[in-house]
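Q: Convert this sequence to structure tokens.
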Amino acid sequence: MDDSIVVTPDWLAPRLEDPQLRLVDVRDAWEYDGIGHVPGAVSIPFDRYRDDSDVDRGTLPGADAFAELLSNAGIAPEDTIVAYDDTHGVFAARFVLTALEYGHDDVRLLDGDYSAWNRDYETTSDVPEIEPTSYDPNPLSPEESPLIGFDAVEDALERGALFVDTRDRDEFEAARLPGAVRFDWREAVDDETRGLKPESELEAVLESAGITPDREIVLYCNTARRISHTYVVLRALGYETVAFYEGSLTEWQARDGEVETGPVAT
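A:
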């Protein structure tokens, strides 16, 4: 697993005093304050890096809005960011994707979550002193970005890209993009450790769904949260051709895109 994308608690623990390390806790503010957090972490709740004007789809907040969040959190472009939640990393992965999209070079997901950290390491209720920065975002160009829109999805369908639906079975059977395969994002997670399954197990479960590094892959769900986790996992495993349908099924159906329904033989 590539530790430039996903890091373990054991990797993080000895680096907590690194002045260029910035920990971001994306849980609700009451959890950060009332339950405790990883020492040194700042609070940027999940709803702060979603577009308030687009509640149904929950799309990206915009480069300037995100930069303001990071500035207020004392984060600079050269810092290493490690994000975590308490939900197996699915909300934190959305932060990782957002930071990457707006040009932050070094942002990583904590393998596991707050509960996994709390099993072996100390937590705190102390809030770190923050010295605001003037964060200047550098959004990826359309050619660099993994995000694609409706028209690009239609093109990918025509050329036979592999569409991966990261939702649960009921959602998948209710409506899905044509030819999509299902890979519930939670299949990557070990319920006992709360972190990712071992790399060999991940590769096996992905391969069983037909998801292999040689394929052109397009990820979607409903509102682009769950695919964020799968995107980070695939990146950490070395997958290179992975697109991210930000509008996901919500936009696809709103624009009368073709869907399939019903169970799929396994």
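Residues 54-58 have pLDDT under 50 and may be disordered.
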